[in-house]
Amino acid sequence: MPTTAPSPKLSTAFEQGGAPLSDATASDSALRRFLFGLPGVDAVGLEARAASLGTRSIKTTAKAYAIDLAISMIDLTTLEGADTPGKVRALAAKAVNPDPTDRTTPRTAAVCVYPDMASTAAAALAGSGVKVASVATAFPAGRAALDVKLADVRDAVAAGADEIDMVIDRGAFLSGRFLKVYEEILAVKAECGPARLKVIFETGELSTYDNIRRASWIGMLAGADFIKTSTGKVATNATPANTLLMLEAVRDFRAATGVQIGVKPAGGIRTTKDAVKFLVLVNETAGEDWLDPHWFRFGASSLLNDLLMQRQKLSTGRYSGPDYVTVD
Amino acid sequence: MASAFEYAPAPESRSVVDIAPSYGLFIDGEFTEAADGKVFKTVSPSSEEVLSEVARAGAADVDRAVKAARKAFEKWSALPGSERAKYLFRIARIIQERSRELAVLETLDNGKPIKETRDADLPLVAAHFFYYAGWADKLDHAGYGANPRPLGVAGQVIPWNFPLLMLAWKIAPALATGNTVVLKPAETTPLSALFFADICRQAGLPKGVVNILTGYGDAGEALVTHGDVNKVAFTGSTAVGKAIARSVAGTDKKVTLELGGKGANIVFDDAPIDQAVEGIVTGIFFNQGQVCCAGSRLLVQESVQDEVLDALKRRLSTLRLGDPLDKNTDIGAINSAEQLARITALVETGEAEGAERWSAPCELPSSGYWFAPTLFTNVTQAHTVARDEIFGPVLSVLSFRTPDEAVAKANNSQYGLSAGIWTEKGSRILAVADKLRAGVVWANTFNKFDPTSPFGGYKESGFGREGGRHGLEAYLDV
Question: How far apart are CA B151 and CA B399, in angstroms?
Fold first, then answer.
């Protein structure tokens, strides 16, 4: 346990052989000191920066590149109580072949479902290169005993999930029990085996940007492969500002440790215009290393159709309409 | 920035603005040639293309314009405030309606990016007219007693860095309070003032209330020394400001001067670092650093200096320099060859004096006037680049250890226009702001402007305030 508060200057501390980051999680109080030593976030400035990047004008060739990239980054999602194997199979077919009229359209990154639908999705996507992502850990509230959450994860992985989207315990986080949040992520990560772990913070419930930065560091320290904004089940989901903040976190984490971690905004991104703005954020914050489906995803359901319509517009010069893309 | 995600060119169309091949002086509601027939050319600093040829005012034209303004003053000042307000509201609305045209025009004539003219200059110009339009019928309640009187004819000389915005800062309060004006825009950026003259006609403003004289320093000198001018307002260099102060000494002219600056942007170790970096960029690279209140001195606490500098260099490497009409351009052209030469000379001095230069890796266009975003480290208070106003995209980085040292260094300047404080600690903001001798102190932001907020300097940065209720005083006989 370190005797002094860890420096927020992680890169410097790391380069100079200072306290390794593992010390930050040695105890509840050490983790708290570390998290509170991170630089604060000025909300006005953060939102102004996100808004200013939102004014970038992405046209012609750049737009075509962005649309295809965005399609390839989608975790095509259905998370409804009414989900059926038929619905999941339809979604899987769309993920593999988003636009039946244009086979050059890239496939999406993954299909995201509840654990009981993971085996259906895995069967439908076998050999396609599209990943199966499953939410777990008593998604979306996360209000269950750890054993139940871990069983949920085991179940999903056994059913063929390549990626697990877990939710953090917001109750623990908001009551200041940061180590509990951290240890739960560790336990889930251990249960994932080869599956990549996305850690959902539910940023709308964490409420402040300082909290989002702290949650990002807890997730990254615990071995998350992705940090993800939200479940899509609350009022405020992904925003340009909270995604920009998380992109800064993964950028800083790689500078400090050399480890690259992905980012996934989810919920509320419905139009091509929105998606392109997020890609501009990625490009000008984390940089081009993150412009890859392995490192950046969109959690979305309706976004894909808008991207497809814009893609058709670019290639034909004409707008089609909602009847020219598939409804799932 | 080499990236897989290359932004395709996204130029704003030039076709929204129709620039005539020549323009006259705007005197008594009419465009007219200079008495001696002299003209000069105005070029686009990003391409050196000649945009137009405009009349060059001389002493005879100044006299004609002041006479026109004097003649118009009687009726204009006698109008009820609510009537003057109508004209100002009308002007504000026309500016909003024509804002795209004016933004493109300003970008062409000045060289600044369309992003800035569109999102900063033009909205502020309209806001300034709206704001002072609201004051015109409420002067009784401005704190100067009942029925405060205007001064008469205002002679106004403005710079080239924010041509239309500086015009708005000068003309809006002058008209609201019942004065008439003769305004001289800078010789490198005359066009937007001439378009404003057209807007005055469009708004039906009575003849002679606003007169625009394009020309050089000699016209400005003739204007401020004219015997029938009651008020002199100048924004520009400290050297010219001093000359003006000398020329009006012993007269009863009321004077406001808004001059140079060497703003300190102070970053404490508990600052929100990512936002502070954005604020540093906004502070010194907004408008290519050609801003009198630019945060041209970065004072950073030693314990976070390396972290801030690394982040700043990374950020500067993403700035997009190039065609000012491209909507994705962050850094445009320097306004003139003369200004570029001045920046270049001061940067060479900085290097010769031992400061360490770093410039963002970006390709400069082959024609036009360009300077890459640059910062100097290892700068001390003794370096020229820490003392002289460069008026370009050049940041001098100094460090400090304690808040007292930060305040002492920030105040150790012949200027006192602006300063910035970056800390998450509210009490520190208040304590430090209280000790800074600067007309504007921004906390956790920089270069934010609003017509309701007074602006002006201490020491060699000038005197008098523009904007807000305080800005009325400069145009009232109080």
Answer: 47
- Chain A residues lying within 8 Å of B322, measured CB to CB: none
Distance CA B115, CA B117 (A): 6
SS3 A255: helix
- Is the Cβ pair A46, B274 closer than 8 Å? yes
Architecture of domain A31-322: Alpha-Beta Barrel (3.20)
- Is A264 marked active-site? yes
Question: Which chain B residues are Cβ-neighbours of A11 within 8 angstroms?
Answer: 307, 310
Q: Which residues pair with A307 in a beta bridge?
A: none
ipTM reported for the complex, 2 dp? 0.95
* A103 in reach of chain B (CB within 8 A): no
Test the B interface: residue of A57, A68, A279, A282 with most B CBs within 10 Å: A57
> What residue in B sits closest to A59 (Cα-Cα)?
B8
Sign for the pseudo-dihedral over CA of B396, B400, B406, B409: negative
Start-to-end CA distance of chain A, whole Å, equals 53
Q: What is the DSSP letter of B317?
A: T
Residues 6+ apart with CB under 8 A from B335: B45, B110, B111, B160, B161, B188, B189, B288, B290, B369
pTM: 0.95
Domain ranges of chain A: 31-322
Distance CA A107, CA A68 (A): 9
Q: Which residues of A touch B274 (CB under 8 A)?
A: 39, 41, 45-46, 49, 248
Q: How many CA atoms lie within 13 A of B59 on its CB side?
A: 5
How confident is the model over B342-365, as pLDDT tens digits? Answer: 999 999 999 999 999 999 999 999
Helix (H, G, I), strand (E, B) or coil at B296: coil
Average pLDDT, integer, range B319-328:
98
Q: How far apart are CA B284 and CA B446, in angstroms?
A: 9
Question: What is residue B2's predicted lDDT score, i.e. its pLDDT?
Answer: 52
pLDDT 10s digits, B18-42: 999 999 999 999 999 999 999 999 9
Domains identified in chain B and CATH numbers:
14-259+458-473 (3.40.605.10), 264-443 (3.40.309.10)
Give the number of other Cβ atoms within 10 Å of residue B451's Cβ.
Answer: 24
Q: Is A283 on the interface with B (CB under 8 A)?
A: yes
Report the 10 Å Cβ neighbour count for A44: 12
pLDDT digits (tens, 9 = 90+) for B232-258: 999 999 999 999 999 999 999 999 999
Among the partner-chain residues B6, B10, B274, the one whose CB lies closest to the CB of A248 is: B274
Written as one letter, the residue type at A237 is N
Crossing angle for the helix pair B273-285 and B305-316, to the nearest 10 degrees: 60
